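Pasting as-is:
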Amino acid sequence: MFLKLKSKIDSLNSIGLNELETVSLLNRVDSKYVVTLSQLDFIFQCLKSNYLVLEIDGIRAFSYENNYFDTPDFLFYKDHHNGYANRLKVRSRKYVEANLSFFEIKKKERITRTNKYREVIPEILTSLNEERKNIIQDYTRKKIETLNLVLQNNFQRITLVNKDFTERVTIDTNLTFIDDHQECSFGNIAILEIKKSKSSNKSALTTFLKENHIREQSISKYIYGVMLLIPTIKKNDFLPIIKKINNLNK
C-alpha cells in the first residue's frame, strides 16, 4: 500500500514530533472512517492542501505492534458487544521504529469519556504478572482471575495535523490479526481517524468526506480482529460493520 501511495505521502509538507505535541486535544471529538485504498488515494487531494504529515528521521509511515489481553471467555469483547458503558480494553503496544513499549488499560465510562492507564515497559508484553492483573482489577467490579494474550495486531500509521494545529488525523493500513492458529489481513481497507478539538468549528477533512458521501463508522481493531479470527463468537450487533467491510473488500 505504501509503495502505491508513497509519492502522495512524500508530497505533503512535514512537521516534527515536537511540533505535533503542541496540538493539545484534551477536550476532543473522535471520528473514525473505514475506507478503501482507492478512496484513500482520492482523499489525499484534501490532505495535501490542508494538513502536515509527521516525519521522524526521514520516516513518515510508522509500524505498530499490539498485543491484546482478555479472559478465557472473552469478557472484554462481550462487554463491548453488549454495549456496556463500563468496559475495558487491555493491551501492550510497541512503537517499532522508536523501540518504545507500553502497557495500557482503557476504560470506557461514558459515550464521551475514556479513563486511561499507561505504563512504560522495556518490551512488549506477551503475558501479565499478578501486579498488572491487580491494576486491571482496580478498574472493574467484575472478578478478573485469568487474562491471556488472545490477539496480536500489527499495522502501519501515518499521522497528520491540520495547519491550524487544532486537529490530528491518523491513517492505519496494512492491518494484520494473529492468534495461535492463524493470521488474517484486513484486506484492501484503511482506518482513518480524526481527533478534533471541541472548540474548533471546522474540519477540512470532515467536510471533504461528507461532501463525497464517505460516512463515519465506529470500529475497534481488537473487536474486528476477534470476529475475524473466531468466526463462531457472538457478533450480532457488529453485523453492519462486517457487511460494510466485506462490501469494501469486493
